[in-house]
Amino acid sequence: MTEVVDWIWEAPTPEERLQRIEEFLTNEGYSLPASPRDVDRSERGEKHIVYGEVWTVEYSVLDQTGRKVYHYRENEIDHIILERIKHSDEWAIEHLSRIPQILKRGKIVSREMSKIIYLSRQKYLHPALGIYVPLRVIVKQSGQGRWYVDTFHPRYRR
Amino acid sequence: MTKKLRFWYKANRGYFSLMLSDYTGKGTGHDETSYEYLFFPIRDLATGEVVGFSNDGGYFPEDYTRIMQLLKEHPIRERYEVPELGLVDVTVDQILTAIYEQYVLAPHREELPIQVEEVRPA
Asked: How large is the ipTM?
């Protein structure tokens, strides 16, 4: 899997990396999900600085406490999706569109000053293993005070 | 024979990932057991075997001290090789210390002005 990650990273732009990701997912029998419904796209395309990088707003969503959480295009491609591929979790990429639902209805399992961890109440079927796996979303607060989806990954359950 | 880990580090977000370089399983999950969501053993979903580590969602420069405390309380005995860090036959806490020294401390050392002791003529 590490060779695949290197090959994706060789593409110079996020969009070209996404093309390679789509090619890889297709070969593996997976696909990118449709963008979620029931989110706010009024700021789509706006640029924010996070981690010293310029990131593009894909959508925002109000979580269960009314907190506005942004989801960024570059982070979805270059961190969330690539980390899932790095960890052989490409099946979970098909559930990226569940992030707003987990923020709205998931269980908050940890809350710190600038980091909140949500766990899905629903468990999702791993198609190859035939087991149901909960998904975790971690949101953080940027230096500018905005909350954003930092990462999304399957949780291990015994 | 020790297991070989592939290493990645994103300095701006203080994120590291270590994965068995020969992992061929069908999927993994992040196990938060005992590490307060600051550090995750990554386990194969089918076998439960630890196949990697990450601090996804954390910030390693700030979390390092606490992670090391937690690893003392809940040690991981397995030994690994991490070629990118020049490490052979080491434990996880030794790997994290190497990451901290090479990717957190070392860049700041280079930023510090070099202090040259003045040599007075006799």
From this structure: 0.92
